[in-house]
Design goal:
Length: about 450
């Protein structure tokens, strides 16, 4: 759903939330640095000798238990991992710490379960490396912390946070349990009484593949509840960190997580239903609705034209053709002028000479609407979104002085794409999307579900 070209600029909220999550965990899980280091906060995290990782008493006293995981690959993969994580925390009655959304393919896993893949520990490590890189290079301006000592200590602590969360030191007492099962060995299942636990999965590497790729593993089912839940040795760990939670059907089997609807638990079933389609937050929905009611003010057609990114560049003609046909047929019905809402990655300056330019200049027959990144409506929604701070929270602690000392002028998240999708979900004269675009798919889904509600 994110633009493949520059996903990060599309959603600068993400690195900010990454920082918040990391700071949050710094508060809970911190290194106990021995005072033998003269260079305050500059010693490398990899030199484990000078650091003894341990949980703060506060983390344990909290009583609340957490789960996190390592996002990787493209946005859709990451979304699939997120959904699996939600199911797992539902089963384990833990709180999910949502990792940041990473750049498109910034972290790769490998082809699971067929070939060599990256170990859970290493995936977690690369995720945090990337997160720190993003925080330092693009999002939080570390330079605006005047105190250089604090600056280097913040970036050092970010590194420590990462290596602790990645389970580089393995599991640590009641503090962190690093899950090292991956898709080579394990298919996570959920059957309340675990009666199918330890069963061999139907997909196993065949001999030929084993020899060719030098892999040797046996894939077994493991019950999430039985292995990691109450009564297991993992139960007491405050934070459970998984590697990849990506899964998809492969050769009649699930790659890594096979938790499905046949389960009888009502609470679990309703959770399953809720994550099928994850709606945008209210601030985005309201902005879209407002644009429809106050600016377009008429029945309209929505056109989503993906013209520049990757493969779509080669299909511009076909993309315009679909829209042209639809509009011609509407013209024949004679409902003029036709109101059209356009969302596209082609910058407004480049519309001249395309079909969009034609539509704009024919003011008698068409009324063309569109939104821009800097429109008041979009910016206002972003400000509101930041103010509400969905799901972001701090636990008060002396360490929060770090967060207070960051510059207060945060960059606003770019919500344009999401507000546009919301507008299109309400287009009563129809929707023309770009074939093969995940954005178009999402709008279709919103239209299907939204049309039955009172939303538009
Ligand atoms: C889930 O955990 C919370 C504590 O974090 C506890 O209060 C609650 O009773 C638990 N619910 C179930 C269904 O076990
Ligand atoms: C858009 O227009 C600008 C200036 O007119 C030009 O430099 C740029 O290459 C154009 N972009 C595309 C995608 O056509």
């Amino acid at each position: 759903m994110l633009s493949k070209r520059k996903p990060l600029y599309r959603f600068p909220l993400i690195p900010v939330s990454a920082l918040i999550i990391c700071l949050f965990f710094l508060v809970l899980y911190h290194y106990h640095a021995k005072p033998d280091s003269q260079f305050h906060g500059l010693s490398k995290t990899s030199s484990t000798s000078s650091h003894t990782p341990r949980c703060s008493g506060q983390a344990l006293a909290l009583g609340e238990k957490f789960v996190s995981y390592a996002p990787h690959s493209g946005f859709s993969n990451q979304l699939s991992e997120f959904k699996n994580a939600v199911l797992i925390v539902g089963i384990l009655n833990r709180t999910l710490v949502v990792p940041p959304i990473l750049d498109h393919h910034a972290v790769a896993l490998g082809s699971c379960p067929k070939f060599r893949i990256v170990d859970p520990k290493d995936v977690r490590m690369s995720v945090w490396d990337h997160v720190i890189e993003v925080i330092q290079s693009r999002s939080i301006d570390l330079a605006c912390i005047k105190d250089t000592k604090l600056q280097s200590s913040v970036s050092e602590r970010l590194k420590q946070c990462g290596s602790l969360l990645a389970g580089v030191h393995g599991s640590i007492g009641k503090c962190i349990y690093a899950v090292n099962e991956d898709c080579r060995t394990t298919v996570w299942t959920y059957h309340k009484y675990g009666h199918e636990d330890d069963k061999l999965d139907s997909f196993q590497a065949d001999e030929q593949l084993k020899q060719k790729k030098k892999i040797s593993y046996v894939r077994r089912w493991k019950d999430v509840f039985k292995t990691l839940g109450p009564g297991s040795e993992v139960e007491s760990a405050s934070l459970l960190v998984f590697g990849s939670l990506f899964s998809a059907a492969y050769k009649g089997s699930e790659l890594h997580v096979d938790i499905h609807e046949s389960h009888q638990d009502q609470r679990f079933l309703s959770l399953m239903k809720k994550i099928k389609r994850i709606p945008f937050v209210l601030e985005i929905m309201i902005a879209g609705k407002q644009f429809v009611k106050e600016t377009i003010k008429a029945p309209f057609l929505c056109a989503q034209l993906r013209l520049l990114d990757g493969q779509f560049k080669n299909h511009q003609k076909a993309t315009f053709h679909g829209l042209r046909q639809k509009i011609e047929s509407m013209r024949k019905e004679g409902l003029l002028p036709i109101h059209i809402f356009i969302m596209t990655d082609l910058p407004g300056d480049n519309w001249t000479g395309t079909y969009l330019g034609d539509l704009i200049s024919d003011k008698r027959n068409y009324k063309v609407h569109f939104l821009k990144e800097n429109d008041k409506l979009v910016r206002r929604a972003a400000v509101k979104l930041m103010a509400v701070g969905h799901g972001q929270r701090f636990i008060s602690n002396s360490d929060t002085s770090i967060s207070k000392r960051y510059c207060s002028s945060q960059r606003l998240p770019d919500l344009l794409l999401y507000v546009e999708q919301t507008v299109c979900s309400c287009a009563s004269l129809g929707f023309i999307g770009t074939p093969g675009s995940t954005i178009a798919e999402n709008i279709e889904l919103m239209r299907k579900i939204g049309s039955s509600s009172q939303y538009c």
